[in-house]
UniProtKB/TrEMBL annotation:
This is Subtilisin-like protease fibronectin type-III domain-containing protein. Residues 29-129 form the Peptidase S8/S53 domain. The keyword Hydrolase applies. Belongs to the peptidase S8 family.
Amino acid sequence: GAAIQKFVTATKAPKVSIRFVGTELGVKPAPAVAYFSARGPTQMSPAILKPDIVAPGVDILAAWVPNKEIMEIGKQKLYAKYMLVSGTSMASPHIAGVVALLRSAHPDWSPAAIRSAIMTTAYVKDNANNVILSMPNRSPGTPLDYGSGHVSPNQATDPGLVYDATADDYVNFLCGLRYSSQQIAAVTGRRNTSCAAGANLDLNYPSFMVILNHTTSATRTFKRVLTNVAGSAAKYSVSVTAPAGMKVTVTPSALSFGGKGSKQGFSVTVQVSQVKRAGDDYNYIGNHGFLTWNEVGGKHAVRSPIVSAFAQ
C-alpha cells in the first residue's frame, strides 16, 4: 500500500496494469482449517464431538444473486453473477453434495449411516503428509478443529462399516439432554413424544468424547454398534492410538460380520488424566487419539477420533 501511494504521488500520469496469473496448483500445505471455522467443543451437547467434518470453504467460486450488489465504488454499485465466497455457507454445500452422492449410490442408507460413512473415511493429513494445520497460528490441528478430518467423497461411498442410528435413538438422546415433550415435538415433528423408553446420551456416534468438567481426570464407557454395509462377510480387528494421559480399552478387540446388514456391538472405556495448559484460555483440547477397525485381509479401515476436552 505504501509503495503504491508513493508511486501515485511521485508520478505525473500514473498508470497501472493488473495481470491475472492464473490458478496456483499444488500449493502446500493444503488443506488447512480456516481461522474463522468454528471449533469444538459445543456447549449445546458437549458429550458429542463437534465439528463432525471439514470441507472446502475458503474462496469458493459460487453463483451470486443478480440483484444484490457485491460492492459500491463511490455511487456506483457493482453486480456480478459469481463471487468468491468463504464460510460455512460454502463448506455446507460441499457436504450436501457428498450426501446426495451417497444417497444416490446407497438409497437404503439412513442419514446417520451417511454421516458415519463421511466421518470414518475422512483424512487428517495434508498434501505434505503432516497433520492438517489450524490457522492462523499454523499449529497442528486436532479433532476440535477438523472433527473426523477432511471429507473424502470417493472413500465415503465404500466405508465397510457404519455407525447407524434411528429417529427413536435421537429422541432418546434429546430426552438425555432433558428436552421437554413440547421441545422434542418441535424438533422431531412428532405429535406424541415420550421419554418413557429412557434417556440416553450415549448416541451410536462415529466419535468418542470425554468432557473434563472442573476436573483433570475422568472415565467414560461408550457402547457402540457397527453395521456391515459391504457386500460380503468380513472380520475386523481394532487398533488404538492414544497419547500419554489417555488409556483406551476396547471389548471385544475383534468383530466378525456376516453378510450385508450384519451387526456387532462393542464397548470402549476411556480413562483420561490431563492438566490444562496455563494461560491457554481458548484451546479446550485435552488430548486425543484414534480408534480404527481394520478389515482383516481387506481394504476397509473405519476410524473414529477419541477426544478429551475441557468444558467451556
